Amino acid sequence: MTTTKAEKEEAKAELLKRVKPGATVYTILRHVSRSGMRREIDCFVLDRNGGRPVYLSGHAATLLGYRRSLNKEHFALIVDGCGMDMGFHVVYELSCILFGKSGGCGGAKALHQEWL
Hints:
Blueprint: H1 5-18, E1 24-32, E2 38-46, E3 53-55, H2 57-64, E4 67-68, E5 77-80, H3 86-99, E6 109-114
Parallel strand pairs: 1-6
Antiparallel strand pairs: 1-2, 2-3, 2-5, 4-5
């Protein structure tokens, strides 16, 4: 599925409301394929009012151009590749697009949690 420029701009605006420079973006590894070449990853931030998790995966998928899982339990980003921390990769890409590529690529830092 391809996304339009307007959809990407809308997703970026929504993410900028929820993720501020320096925020911690939490990733949850939901699934790894048998070959190890594909992962399903969810993204969250904690709300400043009460510390409740705020789901970012939908807007992140739109902005970054990732497909989403059709699993009954989750709709995580489908990330292809291996050989590095793919949760960090997603947060790094998100940071670059939201906050620019200056200064080590922005303000989001990753705390990667793996749950199966």
